[in-house]
Amino acid sequence: MHTFFNIPLTIQLDFIDDILYATPKRDKICPCGGRRHLHHKKEQDIRHSYTYEYGTITIRLTMYYERCQTCHVTTRHDGGLDVIQKTTANYRKLVTTVAKTHSLGYAARQFDVPKATIQGWRVKELI
Ligand SMILES: [Zn+2]
Hints:
Bound molecules: zinc ion
Shape: globular
Number of domains: 2
Number of strands: 5
Largest sheet: 5 strands, mixed
Number of helices: 3
Helix content: 25-40%
Structural class: alpha+beta
């Protein structure tokens, strides 16, 4: 882990012009043993962390869309950050923890995330 951002070491971090670029290492071999072909790559700003000093920490994450040439399964590779709705699992956990320890309304204001969205994340967490 990169200690202060809770990001796996397999993701390269570059801080350029106030933007934190996160570039995961591609896994070119599918679990079936076939080779994955990269058909699309995109950068997206994803909410990842929060500090009282800086507020929400956003990373510019490169995500890969790959298709296995053997089993033809298409996958999106996000470096294990589990991106949903432009947030990482780390961020969703932060927000839902604050909602639990304080209140839903407090977390919604603090993180500027709709209450319903936070409730959805809490439900997913229970499954
Ligand atoms: Zn495969």
